[in-house]
């Protein structure tokens, strides 16, 4: 039985002059789910996240949490990481995190405990008494992440959280996000690092021109992409597969051909045509990566 979404974006629209940033955008995120929100530059990801957090008002539509329209009180339980830095540059790391936890209603002792916990988890102990402006960009990003987590939020909305992080920090953050999801927290994050999105996320939504154009697990997204065959027939002449029914050539170079097999088409005529040219060194089905799926969807005409 499918799990109901706890965070719902329902027919949300937002226009900036002639630009329609969100166009009746609709999707939901379930409790305990890592949801990857991806799209090209200017697709509407950041605008959507700002609307969810109440930073920007929608022109139309509604955002709901557990079936109820979001208000300021509910949004206080959200953790948000903006794409741009949102920190006080002259404030020390520990003082900043304690202050932010207190703003969310924590007492001073609990605020200190939470701040120290996230400083340790995110590898910031040696910088706890440094001003944020004196940190590297990567360490500033770690502090920004701690700021999103320090008040133990019920929802996480993260805009490019992996930006500027080294591989070790990426692995630490990935583990933290999975831990938070395992406690039932819905986690929404955008990223241009599609290999990370593919590895981490339970479901993925692809936005283009303010609309959700594909949404599901990677396997569900692959299901609509057709089958790709890789054939290495070194003696094959150009156009060797042109007359095979249900096949289109995507790319061919140095005897290695990538073909798209139409839904329901048989791959055996392709193999027969390849063998007719001489030896076949490879004949395999290729599972498209999220990057390939993304390019197919975003590059398609509306």
UniProtKB/TrEMBL annotation:
PANTHER family: ABC TRANSPORTER ATP-BINDING PROTEIN. Pfam families: ABC_tran, DrrA1-3_C. Keywords: Antibiotic resistance, ATP-binding, Nucleotide-binding, Transport. GO terms for molecular function: ATP binding; ATP hydrolysis activity. One of its GO terms (cellular component) is plasma membrane. It is a peripheral membrane protein. Residues 7-234 form the ABC transporter domain. It comes from Actinokineospora alba. Its main location: membrane. This is ABC-2 type transport system ATP-binding protein. GO terms for biological process: response to antibiotic. It is found in: Cell membrane.
């Amino acid at each position: 039985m499918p799990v109901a979404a706890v965070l719902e974006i329902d027919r949300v629209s937002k226009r900036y002059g002639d630009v329609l940033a969100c166009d009746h955008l609709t999707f939901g995120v379930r409790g305990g789910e890592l949801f990857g929100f991806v799209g090209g530059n200017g697709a509407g990801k950041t605008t959507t996240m700002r609307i969810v957090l109440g930073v920007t008002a929608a022109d139309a539509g509604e955002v709901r949490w557990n079936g109820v329209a979001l208000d300021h009180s509910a949004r206080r339980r959200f953790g948000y990481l903006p794409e741009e830095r949102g920190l006080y540059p002259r404030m020390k790391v520990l003082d900043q995190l304690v202050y932010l936890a207190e703003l969310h209603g924590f007492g001073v002792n609990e605020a200190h405990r939470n701040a120290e916990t996230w400083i340790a988890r995110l590898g910031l102990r040696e910088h706890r008494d440094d001003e944020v402006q004196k940190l590297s960009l990567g360490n500033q990003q770690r502090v920004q992440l701690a700021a999103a987590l320090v008040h133990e939020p019920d929802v996480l909305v993260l805009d490019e959280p992996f930006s500027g992080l080294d591989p070790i920090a990426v692995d630490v953050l990935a583990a933290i996000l999975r831990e938070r999801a395992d406690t039932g927290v819905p986690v929404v994050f955008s990223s241009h690092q599609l290999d990370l999105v593919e590895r981490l996320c339970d479901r993925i939504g692809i936005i283009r021109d303010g609309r959700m154009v594909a949404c599901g697990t990677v396997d569900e997204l692959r299901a609509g992409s057709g089958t790709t065959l890789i054939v290495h027939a070194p003696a094959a002449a150009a156009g060797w597969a042109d007359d095979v029914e249900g096949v289109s050539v995507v790319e061919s170079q140095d005897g290695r051909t990538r073909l798209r097999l139409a839904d329901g088409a048989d791959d055996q005529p392709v193999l027969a045509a390849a063998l007719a040219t001489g030896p076949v060194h490879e004949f395999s089905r290729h599972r498209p990566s999220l990057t390939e799926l993304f390019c197919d969807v975003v590059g398609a005409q509306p």
